[in-house]
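Re: that backbone. C-alpha cells:
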C-alpha cells in the first residue's frame, strides 16, 4: 500500500479471513448512472479470462503458481501507476482465470496519459478527455490491452487471441470497513479456490 493512501484507509492484517460471499464479490456491477469514474477514490476490480479458461496458472496448496501468461498479467498490473501518474494499485491477486485488485485514483498530478492507439480497446461506455484524470474504464482497458498484446507476442503465431472477457466487474469502495473486507477477500482468494464459482470444477453440467 502506498504511503499516500495509507492515511485514508487502514488495512486489516492479511492473516484475517473473509467468508466467501458470491453475492457480494461476484455479481456483475452496474455502472452507476451519472457517476464520474474518473473521480478520486478506491475501486475493487475483477477481470475474468476469456471463456473463464484457466490461462494464468494453477492453485497448489493454497497458493497460485503463475505460468508465463500469469507473470505477464502481474507485470502489467504493476505498470498501471507508471502509465497513470495519479493512480495507485493496492492489494492484487492473479487467479487461474481471473484477477482481483484495488485501484486508487488520486487527486495528485496532472492526470491522464493517453491510452494506446487501438480501436479495439473497450472503454465500457466511459469516455474521457485526455486533459482529465483517466476513468476507471480507461485504466482497465490499458491493463487488458497491454497484457493481451504481450501474451500474443509470446505465442509468435501472428493471430490475435482473446485473453479477457469483454467487460469487467467493479465496486466503489466506500469506507475503511469496505476496504478491509475486500483486502482480506483478495488475499484469501487462493485458499478459497476450491469453492470459487469461477473454478471450472464447480461448473454444473
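Recovered sequence:
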Amino acid at each position: 500500500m502506498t504511503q499516500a493512501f495509507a492515511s485514508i484507509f487502514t488495512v486489516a492484517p492479511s492473516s484475517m479471513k473473509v467468508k466467501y460471499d458470491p453475492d457480494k464479490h461476484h455479481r456483475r456491477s452496474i455502472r452507476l448512472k451519472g457517476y464520474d469514474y474518473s473521480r478520486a477514490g478506491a475501486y475493487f476490480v475483477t477481470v475474468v479470462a476469456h471463456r473463464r479458461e484457466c490461462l494464468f496458472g494453477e492453485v497448489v496448496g493454497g497458493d497460485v503458481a503463475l505460468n508465463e501468461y500469469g507473470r505477464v498479467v502481474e507485470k502489467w498490473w504493476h505498470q498501471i501507476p507508471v502509465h497513470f501518474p495519479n493512480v495507485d494499485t493496492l492489494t492484487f491477486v492473479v487467479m487461474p482465470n481471473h484477477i482481483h485488485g484495488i485501484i486508487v485514483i488520486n487527486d495528485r498530478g496532472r492526470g491522464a496519459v493517453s491510452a494506446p492507439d487501438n480501436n479495439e480497446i473497450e472503454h465500457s461506455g466511459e469516455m474521457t478527455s485526455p486533459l482529465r484524470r483517466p476513468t476507471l474504464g480507461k485504466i482497465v482497458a490499458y491493463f487488458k490491452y497491454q497484457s493481451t498484446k504481450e501474451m500474443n507476442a509470446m505465442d509468435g503465431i501472428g493471430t490475435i487471441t482473446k485473453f479477457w472477457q469483454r467487460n469487467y466487474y467493479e465496486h466503489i469502495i466506500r469506507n475503511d470497513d469496505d476496504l478491509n473486507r475486500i483486502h482480506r477477500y483478495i488475499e484469501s482468494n487462493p485458499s478459497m479456490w476450491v469453492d470459487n464459482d469461477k473454478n471450472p470444477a464447480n461448473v454444473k453440467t
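The CA atoms of residues 92 and 101 lie 4 Å apart. The chain is about 25% helix and 20% strand.
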